[in-house]
Specification:
10 helices, alpha/beta, binds phosphoenolpyruvate, TIM Barrel, 8-stranded parallel beta barrel
């Protein structure tokens, strides 16, 4: 297992006052935690909050990430945000290709690749999401869907340990129905195998996060799987106490591996 990453995706939630209160509470909790540097804690708020939260995130010892970025550096793309604009705010990460972007905003494997390349080009770390729909799983197509998504990412020639992948079965997102550790590990191992086959041993360093109803109740058993390097978390990242529990589980896992 690689250095665990616990990444929160706030989606379209939180006003300035709520976000500041979250980080104030979180900073109180992380203040006396000694091994926070054994993991990467990240929160991806709406873009409107990225500038506001930079000091608060530093105090809480958490990095910030955006939820999306455009592939062009600038120009007539109303409503979009460029990777350079995100970087300009001191932000390190950006989510790319979340299933909600694919479902509601016509994101495709092709546009995901373009965004990933642009993010890498600007020095951001992309957290690239893949995952199957419930119909795919029911029809026994999980493996084929994942293989096709990973192949597309590999075709961009930009997969490297600078990229973080997130396996997010769409049926598990926001439903409270997390994949079992065995179900998740099966897919993570498939992804890992494809990456190693294409890229060699360096692919063992690419972090593969699990996302889909991860919570304080199931995080330890999911992180215990050999190919699960952390989590991308929606609902449970909105409450400081829950998010802090996830950070603690990540630290516990990191310390177990180090032993
Ligand atoms: C997500 O939005 O990426 C996610 C995994 O959400 P949740 O944890 O709420 O299922």
């Amino acid at each position: 297992m690689n250095k665990p990453m616990i990444a929160g995706n706030w989606k379209m939630n939180m006003l300035q006052s709520e976000a500041m209160a979250f980080f104030k509470d979180l900073a109180e909790k992380t203040k006396n935690v000694t091994h926070l540097d054994t993991i990467d804690g990240v929160i991806c708020p709406p873009a409107t909050l990225l500038g506001l939260l930079s000091d608060a995130a530093r105090t809480a010892k958490i990095e910030l990430g955006a939820q999306n970025c455009h592939w062009e550096p600038k120009g007539a793309f109303t409503g979009e945000i460029s990777p350079a604009m995100i970087k300009d705010l001191g932000v390190k990460y950006t989510i790319i290709g979340h299933s909600e972007r694919r479902q509601y905003f016509a994101e495709t494997d092709e546009s995901v690749n373009k965004r990933m390349l642009a993010a890498l080009g600007a020095g951001l770390v992309p957290i690239v999401c893949i995952g199957e729909y419930l119909e795919d799983r029911k029809a026994g197509r999980t493996q084929a869907v994942i293989q096709s998504q990973v192949k597309s990412l590999l075709s961009s020639q930009s997969m490297s340990p600078h990229v973080v992948l997130a396996y997010e079965p769409v049926w598990a997102i926001g439903t409270g129905l997390a994949a079992t550790p065995a179900q998740a590990e099966e897919v993570h191992a498939l992804i890992r195998g494809m990456l190693i086959e294409a890229l060699g041993a360096s692919a063992t360093k690419i972090r593969i996060l699990y996302g889909g109803s991860m919570s304080p109740g199931n995080v330890a058993e999911l992180l215990a799987m050999p190919n699960i390097d952390g989590g991308l978390i929606g609902g449970a990242s909105l409450k400081p106490a829950d998010y802090f529990s996830l950070l603690e589980a990540g630290i516990a896992r990191a310390l177990t591996i180090a032993r």
